[in-house]
Amino acid sequence: PDYVWYVFAYLLGFYIMLRAFDYRQSLAALGSIIWAFSSYFFIIIAAGHIWKVWALAYLPPMIAGVVLAYRGKYLKGLILTAIFSALEVNANHVQMTYYYLFVILFMVIAYLVDAIQKKQLARFGKATAVCIVGAAIGISLNLSNLYHTWQYGQETMRGKSELVKKNAANQTSSGLDRDYITQWSYGIDETWTLLIPDAKGGASVPLAQNQKAMEKADPNFVQIYQQLGQYWGNQPGTSGPVYVGAFVCMLFILGLFIVKGPMKWALLAATILSVLLAWGRNFMPFTNFFLDYVPMYAKFRTVASILVIAEFTIPLLAMMALKKIVDEPEILTTKIKYVYASFGLTAGFCLLFAIMPSVFFPDFISVQEMQALQQLPAEYQGPIMSNLVEIRKGIFTSDCWRSFWIIVIGSAFLMLYKYKKLGKEFMIAGIAVLCLVDMWMVNKRYLYDDMFVDKTERDAPQQMTETDKIICRDKALDYRVLNLASNTFNENETSYYHKSIGGYHAAKLRRYQEMIDAHIAPEMQKTMKAVAEAGGDMTKVNGDSVFPVLNMLNTKYFIMPLQGGQTVPVQNPYAYGNAWFVDEVKYVDNANQEIEGVGKVNLRHVAVADAKFKEQLAQSVKQDDTSVVKMTQYKPNNLTYEVKSSKGGVIVFSEIYYPGWTATIDGQPAELGRVDYILRALNVKAGTHKVVLDFHPQSLKNTETIAYIGYGVLVLLIIIGIGVEVRKRKKE
Q1: Radius of gyration (Cα) for the chain, nearest Å?
Q2: Is the dihedral of CA 27, 32, 37, 38 positive or negative?
Q3: What gap in Å lies between CA 67 and CA 84, rounded to an integer?
Q4: What are the pLDDT digits (tens) for 282-339?
């Protein structure tokens, strides 16, 4: 099954990296376990974030290439860096890749400090050049995807808006609002989940699902507990915590005491950075600094996910500590005080939290829950809150004891090794089993058996409803559908059979999202009301005044809700069609005037355009009934129209304006303009013409050519690497 391969990829990647660090096989295997079974890596499998899975899996072997280069194994480092940077970029989860650039930066600084101390700057420079070349090869293989993703990003919500907003201070230079970026921020006290998995209750699932916790529940309140979540942190919701393993945390702390060299400080610095940035809106001064001054940081939301850095650095430093113990067993005697200190700073806190939870964590009810519970009758509020606190204390203290005993058992393995009751391989095996059982049992809370079903085959994954069947009988080349019976902009089912006005995407085109906010969403509410009051009889609805923007988007059908979860299609006779001539183009000076102007004119006859498109569009003329624009061929990247007009003028196309689209009139290039904030427009002379809109940007050809060159270089490097290795083995 696929999920087995995901876990195998996690394991193999970290194993390769530890072998690059020159770890023995057994230690590398142990390290791969404590990395791969970190809770977040299983949670994203359950959530279906598969490209994030692959991006995380490729990062350790990519870093392995960097490690080999700085260890003087330049060719191997070059090949490994090139291969896995190519795979990493191909995984197409830029956020994870970006976060790990911080890890690589800290590691490179550590190698620089080491080179300065050893006076080996020339070797450092050579290794750095190798890493840069390897990364460049990997990037070149994916240049087309990278460039066009970057280009798309400029046009989306992740790019800067041209609108001047009233709350401009809340907007970052990237265009995203600070509140939006930091909506999912890890709580400061929630950071204890690294050591104690359910320090904040775990996942946002109904509290009543936790049978053990419900043993303390008052039977009178069970129905209310069905509505309350198991999670009580300050995130809007979560699929589970970030847990790296209790004994792993102890080894990490021990590593801070016994591991020497700049790499330790690099890993510590990366860990601290990860935690501070994960706090997001709970630590805004630091977050604001990164949003305002660190390139690209403001492009990504869900800042809590930067804890993937800590999930890498904590296991790596933990393994450095364990390697130190294996290589120098006397440390457990000469530096035993550090073992005790590490035990106290981890198991000690677990014990204190288990005994006195309320002293350290006074809040077991979130602010949102408190507000909701205050709506209950006054006589119920006190008993419910008191009982709820006891239930959640039970969840918390149970995991405190759990982490405490895991650390005790792990420490016992170290002591048995110290007193020579266990050999090093048996100690490593024992710790591996302990960590595997620990983390496996936690992961099973969030990726459990009931989530898996037998594979089935469907001819149509999205079943066609009666409404879909009726709409699909319309064989017109191109029209759009607005589903008012769903959460329009948070579902994609409608798009399976229709060109949808709605749909979900984490990075919608910015101008389209702004039109949703300014015009489309308000018109949807008016449409629902008007169509309902008319009983579906569209002759009784003044469509030109109720939903003009939906008309210009060629919304030919509305899907309306009925009782019992059923739906019915309603045809919109007011839709403007695929394209139309306008009588006038009204030019404005900025984006604010443009989007506001859309709501002030008759869009069927007047187009609103930014003054910068005046040269392309000029001015239109008043049309007569003989002016016709008809779509004759539709392909997603190639649209053909037949145009007839005795006067010529400006045609508005019901298609989103986007860089890279080109136009021809009778085979001759023509310049497109943008009107009505989001649509394409073209000035056409009088007569009969063939207009073609085409999307085949030159940048595709250019970037793909570079990619082919990159493939050739990589293949050549691999052949050279194999040849060198074969000759080396023959000599041996």
Answers
A1: 31
A2: positive
A3: 13
A4: 999 999 999 999 999 998 989 999 999 999 999 999 999 999 999 999 999 999 999 9
The CA distance from 621 to 610, in Å, is 18
What is the residue type of 719?
I
Quick one: pLDDT at residue 175?
A: 59
Domains contained in the chain, number: 3
Same structural domain, 629 and 567: no
Amino acid type, 353 = F
Q: Do the beta carbons of residue 409 and residue 207 sit within 8 Å?
A: no
- Looking at residue 394, its pLDDT comes to 93
Encoding tokens for residue 139?
A: 């990037």
SS3 at position 575: coil
Tokens for 414, please give them.
């170290």
Residues 373 and 505 in one domain: no
Distance of CA 118 to the CA centre of its chain: 41
pLDDT at 3: 85
Residue 253 corresponds to which tokens in the numbers above? 């702390």
Is pLDDT at 167 greater than 70 in this prediction?
Answer: no
Q: Tokens 């970057």 belong to which residue?
A: 150
Give yes or no for a contact between 541 and 530, defined as CB atoms under 8 angstroms apart. Answer: yes
CB 36 within 8 A of CB 83: no
**391 in the same domain as 339:** yes
- Alpha carbons 311 and 301: distance in angstroms, whole number: 19
Residue 686 has pLDDT above 80, yes or no: yes
Q: Tokens 């394409």, residue?
A: 680
| Residue 514 structure tokens | 């702004």
CA dihedral 708, 714, 719, 725 (to 10 degrees): 180
d(CA 637, CA 661): 8
* pLDDT tens track for 341-361: 999 999 999 999 999 999 999
Are 354 and 273 within one domain? Answer: yes
What is the rounded distance in angstroms from the CA atom of residue 132 to the CA atom of residue 167? 41
Q: Which residues, listed in sequence order, are joined to residue 673 by a DSSP beta bridge?
A: 681
Whether 230 and 207 have beta carbons less than 8 Å apart is answered as yes
Q: Whole-angstrom distance between the N-terminal and C-terminal Cα of the chain?
A: 41
Do residues 310 and 419 both lie within one domain?
yes
- 633 contacts 609 by C-beta, under 8 angstroms: no
Judged against a pLDDT cut of 80, whether residue 170 lies above it is answered with: no
Residue with the larger pLDDT of the pair 11 and 226: 11
- pLDDT tens sequence across 382-409: 888 999 999 999 999 999 999 999 999 9
Q: Say if residue 191 is in the same domain as residue 270.
A: yes
What is the pLDDT, as a whole number, of residue 144? 94
Give me the count of residues in the chain: 732
Structural domain including 531 reads: 466-571
> Is 241 in the same domain as 178?
yes
Domain's final residue, options 524, 547, 571: 571
Q: Where are the alpha helices (DSSP H) in 419-571?
A: 424-443, 466-472, 510-515, 521-533, 543-546, 548-552
